[in-house]
Amino acid sequence: QQPVQSPQAVILREGEDAVINCSSSKALYSVHWYRQKHGEAPVFLMILLKGGEQKGHEKISASFNEKKQQSSLYLTASQLSYSGTYFCGTEHLRGGSSNTGKLIFGQGTTLQVKP
Amino acid sequence: NAGVMQNPRHLVRRRGQEARLRCSPMKGHSHVYWYRQLPEEGLKFMVYLQKENIIDESGMPKERFSAEFPKEGPSILRIQQVVRGDSAAYFCASSPDRDDYEQYFGPGTRLTVT
User: What are B45-90's pLDDT values in tens digits?
Assistant: First the structure.
């Protein structure tokens, strides 16, 4: 039931791009992306609802493929501040089309951006 | 607009004692979620509450753990007779009335059981 994130860890140089993937074995209602720095709370990045939409937020964007039950987070021209652990949280469909409300998080992808 | 507030931020309890963790959601938010994060691990869902109702407690251990979100006041996560394995960061998140909104996390309570 827990979504699978890949890769587990990424090391980048400033200015490079990265893609983090999140796959679920269950039908998804929504996918939420968070970034967490060590010892801090997760910070909300974006939410994607079923419908296969794509969202952007400065140099961070994400896509949601409902049929494949996958989401990808795109980080372009990475900055030092992007370092942290990225989690996808998936919200599943209950019976019918209603959502459950709770988020099931992946195991996280650790991103390190070096100067 | 104040964010999600949790207190205490750090809590030390001896084995067998009780731990009470408090969460005040963002203004206008009536949905509260509790998550537990063990060191170097991801977030695990525990319980989802709306005012005076437990909506989903499928992630709560069957014994010693309980949660409430009264009509007035913060949501409380209560752990009775704590054991070393309860040591973790406990995060609360809140979302607005409609349930297709993002969840905003509080700073967490770091519980250490000695």
Answer: 999 999 889 999 999 999 999 999 999 999 999 999 999 999 999 9
Mutation target vs B (from A1, A31, A102; most B CBs, 10 A cutoff): A102
SS3 assignment, position B85: helix
Task: Give the pLDDT confidence score for residue A83 in this predicted structure.
Answer: 96
Separation in Å, CA of B108 to nearest CA in chain A: 6
Which residues in chain A are closer than 8 Å to B101, comparing Cβ atoms? 47
Asked if A3 and A90 count as a contact pair (C-beta separation under 8 A), the reply is: yes
Number of H helices, E strands in chain A: 0, 11
Burial class (CB in 10 A: 0-12, 13-18, 19+), A55: middle
As a whole number of angstroms, the distance between CA B74 and CA B103 comes to 17
* Element containing residue B76 per DSSP (H, E): strand B75-79
Indicate the DSSP class of residue A98. Answer: -
Q: Which two tokens stand for residue B3?
A: 């964010």
